[in-house]
Sequence to fold (344 residues):
Amino acid sequence: MSAPPTRFRIPWHAVVIAILTIGLLWLFFRNVDLAAAWAAVTRAHLGYIAAAVGVMFAVYSLRAQRWLILLQPLGPVRWSTAFRTTVIGFTVIFLLPGRVGEILRPYLLARREGLNAASTFATVIVERLLDVVTVSLLFAGAVFFSDIDVGERVKFAGIVAAVGSGTALAILCVLAGHPERLGRFAGRLSRRLPAKVADAVARIVRTFTEGLVVLRSPARLGIAAIWSVGVWVTIGLSIWLTSRAFDLTLSAIGTFIVVGYLAVGVSVPTPGGVGGFEVLYKEAVTTFFGANPDVAAAAAIVLHAVSFVPVTILGLVLMWQDGLTLGGLKNMRAEAKAAEQPPV
Fold:
């Protein structure tokens, strides 16, 4: 008797992501005069765009250096390895769904440098927390110290960002010096939760605590935070340069309002941040800097290309040199996820 035919199932999350992407692109293009936007592209100053591309490569160099600071207690790591795996990791994030690159990046580095995979993965968690705190503080600073009339809602968001990020940074400093406190708190919390939930919480806490142990001291966290400021100021410079290429005048401090908006845009789980990036950039520069919507749309598309295309090309070249393929990395995900878990 022959086996029943296997039904082809489309993953529900892929359908949701596709609908979300299409919806955001419709929202972005619905009031855009495509002819006017293309005309803006043809008039753009190529020198500013070229400079922005160079600055974006500098961003990944700074990311690699920051990562080295967090990795230092684990053992010696070559800068070249940190840079290569950072670029490859972000390339995979841009090209594959589910932010697979966040898992594969530390796994590839740990495998090359002979480090503990769980500890290496934990440093990426700390990196992401530093990114959130840094962007929040820069956004809050731009809201309150620029001369832009941002309105009450954005001012409230700035207050929430400043208080929330400041509190988070203070908690991180305390926990970096005494990570065992988090373990004790999680233990008390787990006793009140169902067994499966408690186990999931315990795994998350173990991984996060491992990351705090990697820091060893609040001083190391402070140094990494300074490098985080460098990362995001450089990202802000690339945004300013690309906007300037379209004759959009963003003030130096006001640029970080756009940075805050874009941070929200790229957090939307669409492939490469498509849709969310464009919608939030256009919203920010038209609302706060009086940009023409068609020119803002053209600048958004070019800025997205500047931010993602060159580093993706470099990442694919590095993957080719290392004998890696997107399919192979996707299949490696399960192995990487198993390796990231600290022992029970």
User: Anything to note?
Assistant: The chain has one domain: 43-340. The chain has 15 helices and no strands.
